[in-house]
Amino acid sequence: MRQWRLPSLRRRVLVGLLLSVFLLWPILILVGYLEIQNEAPPLKQVSMAMQSVVAQIDDKAPIEVICSRILAQQKLLEALTPNTADDAVLLWQVKHETAGMLLNLGRSYRLPDTDLIDGNHRLQIGDASFDVLQVTKGPWRIRLGLTSVTDLRLLWMLGKDIWIYLMVAFLVQLIPMFIAVSGGIRPLRQWSQRIAERKPDDLRPLEEAARYSELEPMSNALNTLLCQLRGKMDQERAFVQNAAHELRTPMAVISTQAHVLASATDDDTRQQAKLHLEHAAHRASHLIGQLLQLAQLETDHAPRPAQQLDVAQLLRLSLAQLFPLAERKAQELSLQAPDQLWVTVDRDALQSIIDNLIGNAIRYVQEGGSIAVSLNLEGAYWQLQVSDNGPGIPLADRVRIFERFYRVADNTQPGTGLGLAIVKAACQRLGGSIQLGDGPEGRGTCFTVQIPMHALTH
Question: What's the pTM value of the predicted model, to 2 decimals?
Answer without folding.
Answer: 0.48
